[in-house]
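Service request form, structural biology core

Requester: graduate student, group of Dr. S.
Request type: structure prediction, single chain
Budget code: on file
Notes: please return the result as structure tokens.

Sequence provided:
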Amino acid sequence: MIFGNILSSQDFDFLPSALKKALEYVQSSGLDKLPLGRHNIDGELIFANVMEFEAGVAEQKLAEVHKEYIDVQFLISGFERIGYGLANKSNPISTEYDSENDYYLVESMKHECEVLLEPGMFAIFFPEEPHKPGCRYVDEHASMTCDNYMLKKVVVKVHRSLI
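Core staff response, request fulfilled:
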């Protein structure tokens, strides 16, 4: 997992070109105005999904795991908590792998950690790294009320063959 802020993307010059391309897309897209849905960047190799939804309670969510795609999760608006863990074959699998949508779910993650995202921040999750996005995050320093859990984000999917 890699964690950063789009304003400091020069700090990520070491990244492979495909991941830099994903970050450049986020920087140059005028994300506030991007319509919801899929946006092709490089066909099936790199594409973005723009979504808006209400964050859920972490304890009621399952973690997702991908086999083929790297997730570059970028928060446009709202405040989000993402749980994540190391790739671990002992994480109890909840659903079978869905090859069409490239994911399966796990009930829990051994050594779970979390990252807190505010607008402009991103987290990159590699194949087999379980992560639980879209969880509620309340920060006493943030201008967020307990009844406002709406998130807008873009997830750029980068095929593992590009790394």
